[in-house]
Structure formats: structure tokens, C-alpha cells
Amino acid sequence: MAIKLEIAQEILLNSVNVMPKERVTLSDCWHRVLAETVVSDIDFPPFDRSPLDGYALVAEEVANAAPDNPVVLRQIDNIPAGGLSQKPVTPGTACRIMTGAPLPPGATGVVRLEDTVVDGEMVTVLEGKGANKNICFRGEEICQGEELISPGTVINAGVMGMLAVLGKGRPFVFCKPRVALIATGSEIVPVDFPLSLGKIRNSNSYMLSALASEAGAQIVLMGNAADDVDQIAHLLEAASDCDVFMTTGGASVGDYDLIGEVYKKLGITVLFDRVSIKPGMPVLAGLREDKLFLGLSGNPAAAAISFEQLVRPVLLKMGGRKVWWRPRVKAVLAAAFNKKTGAKRFVWARCWQKNNDILAEPLYFQSNGMLKSAMAANSLIVIPEDTPPLPAGAEVEVILLSD
Amino acid sequence: MAIKLEIAQEILLNSVNVMPKERVTLSDCWHRVLAETVVSDIDFPPFDRSPLDGYALVAEEVANAAPDNPVVLRQIDNIPAGGLSQKPVTPGTACRIMTGAPLPPGATGVVRLEDTVVDGEMVTVLEGKGANKNICFRGEEICQGEELISPGTVINAGVMGMLAVLGKGRPFVFCKPRVALIATGSEIVPVDFPLSLGKIRNSNSYMLSALASEAGAQIVLMGNAADDVDQIAHLLEAASDCDVFMTTGGASVGDYDLIGEVYKKLGITVLFDRVSIKPGMPVLAGLREDKLFLGLSGNPAAAAISFEQLVRPVLLKMGGRKVWWRPRVKAVLAAAFNKKTGAKRFVWARCWQKNNDILAEPLYFQSNGMLKSAMAANSLIVIPEDTPPLPAGAEVEVILLSD
């Protein structure tokens, strides 16, 4: 009995837990998922500092300085970036200061080097308006105790920089879920093998491995198995350190649909055995202790859509992400879709913006052209169940793919 | 003299070449850039095959089969997936066949297992309409000699699957450009060090390393250097196997702006020394033989925008990509931007779709809040030079960031 997609998604999401956390060196954290709440233990900047190269001084003194009204000051010190000065700046004096250096005591502003003329220790200020604004104040960007980043945040360039500013050189991130993948089918040969009549190469493992990587998982390729219960069961047990076990092939009706028998042999409880979507209906989901088993179709088009709709959200939840679903937008069909739809259907598509519309063009119509479509697609059109053929111009819902 | 952004981009793009290619095992190719033209040396499917589990037969014989008009045939063989049968199917006979198996000689159609009743070797067909359509014909998806993938294609899940189908177990991809990165400034300390007064942690290296990874480069972190010509020059030479050399800090006016001196010492020809954009004006670009040197600002906001606008396109070109620019869309300002703009300005923003509009909200206005903005941004608003303050509702151009 095929169950509804939303129910299948809920069953799977309820069957898995978020992964434990691990510490990872910051330089290896790009695109990992943060597993801690980051609270700043410093103000940032940690001190009042100069945003430019120039002279720290008493701002009020130079407020009206101009080429025809120059103010002459005596330089009392020189602060490089990373340096310090304890000499107080008083009226009539100034302190040379570099970008990023701490303001010396007494200084209430900074004038730009370009607005001064220097002769020995005498500094002539030719433009002083706004000198009091040329200060980055302590805590201006970040306050001590401020909660800055929450668990589940994907570490992008900005987050990397922020973690560094806060001294988080080895932040906690969620472990990546490990997904064992076995391609089954006596017709399948490894990619580098010669092809004999009746055989095809294993492409599902590579396609699914890319999809799993994109979902933040660590794929463990367990190779190919013949249509043989013992062989498949053996490979699954050999990958027992993994968190999710995925097979392709042997999941539909027929003599050689063995995954059900494998589950029986291994004591895996079946959660459901098909989902009413097209393509991707055959999915034999099972659970043993807290490990999830997912038997996908051997058909690449079906396996890809089952993965997108059922496996990806599970991997994102396990990986600690906050958002498990891809963005959806309304779009306009750029060409007719001439098939009627029974079970909810997903169609590879290419979307683009034109004036204020998003147009979506279905890519090929045959599941046999699937790899060409998947290479070119940037989106999936979602057609609800029981929909007649759709004319060009019809409004459709589209899932945006990032790949 | 600051030069225009477009001129700076052209100078840099003309200064670099596409990287050489290398062979990489297919399972490691996700998101790499293909460096060969892939032409199929097979038809795919490589033989006429069954798309389902059922019986191969003479389709014309069962065209009118129905529950009240059953057609009884004799099973003469059984073809598992990966198997073969040489026994010709003739009128009155049928051959059991599994999904993906090659059609036996003589068969012109397949009926579904579910539409038959089997008793010993006798097969009763209850529904035979369309049996002639249940064949995937040889070459239906791919023809031998067909050019399928061109150099510069980023290897997504569909491309991975296609390469596997074609037996490309170790395709040629472009080598990743290696980018040496040195953070300069005596005020900078490594991320795990204790902070003393006047010091801040090195965050630029991490932020830029994430940006470089996203641009398909291999970052080589060379650590921090004090404001010292010899030290910086030494670190640059120590990274001499790299393709691009990036520094942050020491690139604007002032006593401690040393990168110019470093270039002189190392015999690096200056290409330009500032670009009229805000933030990100100070960029000291240099060339020695075919190696590019890029001195970015030490200010994170400036460094990030210089990288986005100047370094990223260069890395994408070197990495063999076809497209060097991010997508741009028209959007509507969700809040006023109250500053007037002299040099072309880039503002971190958050975009979202509302009805038929894309709205863009500027994130903070101070460069000091840069890391918070960069964490939350999904886009950059581009404000042309010499633009007055912009009210909410103004149309703006927006660059979409993928991160």
C-alpha cells in the first residue's frame, strides 16, 4: 500500500535523531553545522580604536580647522597597529596612530593623514570636521555576553570570520551522518569494468553520493551486490558503523525484489513499502534499533526523486540543520506538460526570471532521459495528484535546487 | 589613482590562465569542474530492455487481451536482470523477464506481472493493451558518438551519474587554483591565542578561506605576519608553489602599509593600487611571471567585497568555469538606504520573494557591523556611483550569493 508523501516524510523524520557533536579545527569548518550557542566573551572592538591612519587628538580643538584656518599641534607619540601609548593627548598635542590601533588616553577624535602636513614633530591639521566620528568604539560591533550564533547555523564565510573573532578555534559542529550505499542488481557492473551484453554500469551510487554530499552527509560506498539476499545482507552488516543504510534496486515487485527478504533476515522492521509519488514510488523503509534502512528503486529517475523527497530532509535533520526543506516559489510553465498526473509528480525543470515572472520549463518527459534532465535542471516542478495535462502559462509550484 | 571596477576586473582576468587538468577518481569529483569533452562510446540503454517485471511476448497477440478475453501463452524461459535468453519468443509463447533485462529475440512487447495469472508454465494474460510500449529501446537515452558534456561543466549529481553510465571512472577535471593567504598586521594574533590590549584575532584568513573554497580554490593558510617587509616577503616566497598570493592588511596609505615595499623587494610589477568601490578600495594587485599577487585591505568588510568583486571571478576563470559572475536580479528596497554614494557601493542584504517582487533589505549600515551582516546576508545590493540616498521602494540591482 502506497502511503502519502507527507506521512512518509513524517515517519522518517520521527525515526531519526540529531547526530552527536564533535570539535573541528576552524579552518575545516566551512559548510559544517554549528552545534553550540556562541556567546561573546569579549567586547568587539575590544578597545576604542582608529578606523584610519592619521592623528589622534582632541576633536574639539580642530572642529573648525581648514586650509585657511590650520591648527598646529605637537606630535607626542606614534602608535603602530598592535602598539599602545600611555601618553595622554592634551590640547595642543596629537599622537600619530595607525588603522586599528587603540586610541591613546585623552584623545576624542582622529584626523586623516591626508588632511595634515607634517614638519618634524609639528603637525598642521587642514581639515578637522567630523574628527570625533573617526573612532570605532569598544563594543560597537559586539558586546560581551551577546548571543551571536545559534546551533544549527551553517558555517558560511561570515560565520567563519565571527567564530575567529571570538577565539573559537575548534568549535563544536554536528557529526556528519554516515550513509552506507549499496547498488544491487546482477545486471550492474562497476564503472571501470568492460560492459558485456545485458549489463549496465552502476551510476546510482555516484549520483546518490553527490546528492548525499550536498545534504551534508558522509557517503560510504559499499559497492555493488548481485541479486542475492546473503550478499546484500553481508554488505549491510559490514557497514554497521554507519547511521543510515541505503540500497538501490530490488525494491519493486517481482522475483528479484530482494530487499524485503534482506530486511526479514536482518530483523529490520518495515516502516512502509511504497509512497504515492511519481517517479520514486518504490521505497522500502525500515528500522532496526535507531538505524534507518532505505531501499530505493534501481531506476535513476525514481531513486533521485525518492532521495530528494524522503532521504534529504532526514539527513538535514540528523546533521543538525534548522531548515529541512528547499525553497519553493510560484512559477509559470514555459511549455505545456502534456501528461495527466495521478500520484503527485515531480518534473525536472529549468527556471529563469523574466521581467517579474519566474518561468519553468519541463526538461524532457521520459524517465529514460533522466540523467540529461538532472544534469541541466535547477528546479523540480511539483504537480499535485489528480491533475489534468497543463498548458503553457499555467501556474505551478517549483522547488529550487541548489546544485 | 583608483581605477574603475570593470577595468580592474579585466586586468586581473587577462593576467591569469586556466589551470592544467588532472585525473580524479569519480567518487571524489563532486563539485569539481570537468576538463574534457565527454562523448558517449555506447548507446544507452545498450540493448532493448524491459522497463518492468513481467512477460516478454509478441505484442500483437495480446493487443485485445482482457479479463473476459484472456490470452494463454506458454513460458519458455526466464531472464533475470543481468541475464540473457537466446530462445526466440514466437506466437503462443512468452518469456519471463525482469526490469532492466534485455528483450529476447522475437519479443515485441512486455506485459506487467500484475496483469497475468501464472499456473505452472502456462501464463494467462488479462490485460495486453500497450504491451508494445513497454520497451526501452537501445540508444533511446544516449546515442553512441553523442557529445554529452563540455569542459567547464560543474559536476553535479546528474553529471556524476552520466559520467558513471559512460564508464568515466577517472575523468579529467581542472586542478584547483592554490591560493596562499597571509594576514599581516602586528595587531593580529592567531585565533587560539590570548588577547592582550591592542591586539585582535585574525578573522580575515578564515573568512577569505571560506570564500575561496566556495570559489573552487584550495586555500593555503600561511599564518600571520607582523608589519615587517622581510617577514611578509619570506612567507610569500615560502608559498611559491601556489598560483595566487593573497595578503590582507598593509594595503592602504600610511607608515605601516608595507605591501608595496614587499612587491618592490620581490620584483613584483604593480598592476593597480586601488579600485573605486566602497568598501574595498585598497587593492594592490601585482604580477611576477604568471603569478598573481593581491593585497587586500585588513578591514574585513573591505576585504570581503574586494574578494567578491575582484578575486572570485579570477579563481573561477582559473578553475575552468564557464560562468565567472554571480546571478543578478532587480529588487525593491525594503527599507531606505540613507547614505549618498560616491564610488560604486556594495551593501550586504537579505532578499526574499513576496508576491511577484523580490524585496531586498540592507543589513546594518556600518562597516563595523560587517561580520553580523555577512553572516545573515544572501545578497549584495549594488548602488551605482554618484547616487543620492535611496528611499524604501526604490528599484535596485542585487547580486545573489550562494552561501
UniProtKB/TrEMBL annotation, chains A, B:
<dbReference type="InterPro" id="IPR038987">
    <property type="entry name" value="MoeA-like"/>
</dbReference>
<keyword id="KW-0501">Molybdenum cofactor biosynthesis</keyword>
<comment type="function">
    <text>Catalyzes the insertion of molybdate into adenylated molybdopterin with the concomitant release of AMP.</text>
</comment>
<keyword id="KW-0460">Magnesium</keyword>
<dbReference type="InterPro" id="IPR005111">
    <property type="entry name" value="MoeA_C_domain_IV"/>
</dbReference>
<feature type="domain" description="MoaB/Mog">
    <location>
        <begin position="180"/>
        <end position="317"/>
    </location>
</feature>
<keyword id="KW-0500">Molybdenum</keyword>
<protein>
    <recommendedName>
        <fullName>Molybdopterin molybdenumtransferase</fullName>
        <ecNumber>2.10.1.1</ecNumber>
    </recommendedName>
</protein>
<comment type="similarity">
    <text>Belongs to the MoeA family.</text>
</comment>
<dbReference type="InterPro" id="IPR001453">
    <property type="entry name" value="MoaB/Mog_dom"/>
</dbReference>
<dbReference type="GO" id="GO:0005829">
    <property type="term" value="C:cytosol"/>
</dbReference>
<dbReference type="InterPro" id="IPR036688">
    <property type="entry name" value="MoeA_C_domain_IV_sf"/>
</dbReference>
<dbReference type="InterPro" id="IPR036425">
    <property type="entry name" value="MoaB/Mog-like_dom_sf"/>
</dbReference>
<dbReference type="InterPro" id="IPR005110">
    <property type="entry name" value="MoeA_linker/N"/>
</dbReference>
<dbReference type="GO" id="GO:0046872">
    <property type="term" value="F:metal ion binding"/>
</dbReference>
<dbReference type="GO" id="GO:0061599">
    <property type="term" value="F:molybdopterin molybdotransferase activity"/>
</dbReference>
<keyword id="KW-0479">Metal-binding</keyword>
<dbReference type="GO" id="GO:0006777">
    <property type="term" value="P:Mo-molybdopterin cofactor biosynthetic process"/>
</dbReference>
<dbReference type="Pfam" id="PF03453">
    <property type="entry name" value="MoeA_N"/>
</dbReference>
<comment type="pathway">
    <text>Cofactor biosynthesis; molybdopterin biosynthesis.</text>
</comment>
<dbReference type="Pfam" id="PF03454">
    <property type="entry name" value="MoeA_C"/>
</dbReference>
<keyword id="KW-0808">Transferase</keyword>
<dbReference type="InterPro" id="IPR036135">
    <property type="entry name" value="MoeA_linker/N_sf"/>
</dbReference>
<dbReference type="Pfam" id="PF00994">
    <property type="entry name" value="MoCF_biosynth"/>
</dbReference>
